[in-house]
Amino acid sequence: MQIRIISSGSKGNSMLFRAGDMYGMVDAGLTLRALTPRLEEAGVPFRGLDHILVTHGHLDHARSAGALAKRHHATVHCPEAMMQNRSVARAPRLSNTSDGMDTELLGEHGDKVRLQAVALPHDCHPTLAYKLTHDDRCLVVLSDIGRPDRQVAQRLSGAHVLMLEFNHCTEMLEAGPYPDSLKRRVGGDQGHLSNEQSQEMLTWLAGENLHTLVLTHLSAKNNQPEIALNCAMETLDKLGLSHIKVLIAKQEESLEPIQV
Ligand SMILES: [Zn+2]
Ligand SMILES: [Zn+2]
């Protein structure tokens, strides 16, 4: 399985995966206009997307899922609670995802990807993390989680590639430009992970399979790539895993493809 992170951050999140002839996406948080050239650049053929998985209803994840699904004749997989949302209304097919789900995504040419979902504490209910497995290689997409949760980490163990939210630096959030209510939301236990909290999750999640860690959903105002990177490296060093490759997902451009 190969993945490509199309965009990541508070303005929109999206990740493309390819397993054999099957193309899928996790989240479609950019506008269709912004997504289209990035998917072309990634080589997605005309009507080539088979599945679009949405983690939760916040627009930075769901924005154009329905419109993109309509264009590609794809199935949108999302929590039942968001099936009435405008963001997915135009999807030709909707399929329900929920906590504890363990199912298979099927491609037109017989490709299969195992899909597992785990519910996260976040202020949009439900919010799901997804674990995708193809040919015994495993990808975990874990973002928008308000606090470290050991059980969540245990249920998502075994990743070869881990996409983990490193949202904000606590000091920068406190001193930053957000109004107090938003600071409380982001920093609260239904909001987003601080760098320190992400380090804690990483301690539980980093296992013997892991070869690439991607830091995602970095706040443009309340974090800096170097700070998040240092935090991740510090934790990996402590775990004796300093050989693991660490990448930072970007808002404005796609990353190079990653082989899971
Ligand atoms: Zn988000
Ligand atoms: Zn969210």
Helix content: 25-40%
Please count the helical segments.
8
The CATH superfamily is identified as: Ribonuclease Z/Hydroxyacylglutathione hydrolase-like
Count of strand segments? 14
Order of helices and strands: EEEHEHHEEEEEEHEHHHEHEE
Tally of discrete structural domains: 1
Q: Mean pLDDT, rounded to whole units? A: 97
Biggest beta sheet attributes: 7 strands, mixed
What does this structure look like?
This protein has 260 residues and is an alpha/beta fold. The chain has a single domain, classed as 4-Layer Sandwich (Metallo-beta-lactamase, Chain A), CATH 3.60.15.10. It has 8 helices and 14 strands. The site of one zinc ion has 6 residues, from helix 2. One zinc ion binds next to loops.
Entry summary:
By secondary structure, the chain is of the alpha/beta class. The protein contains eight helices and 14 strands.
Give the helix/strand layout.
Layout: E1 2-7, E2 14-19, E3 22-28, H1 32-41, E4 49-53, H2 59-62, H3 65-72, E5 75-79, E6 93-97, E7 102-106, E8 112-120, E9 127-134, E10 137-142, H4 150-155, E11 161-165, H5 170-175, H6 180-187, H7 195-205, E12 212-216, H8 225-238, E13 245-248, E14 258-259
Parallel strand pairs: 3-4, 4-5, 5-6, 10-11, 11-12, 12-13
Antiparallel strand pairs: 1-2, 1-14, 2-3, 7-8, 8-9, 9-10
Helix pairs in contact: 7-8
This protein binds zinc ion (ZN) (2 copies).
Residues 13, 58, 60-61, 144, 217 line the site of one zinc ion.
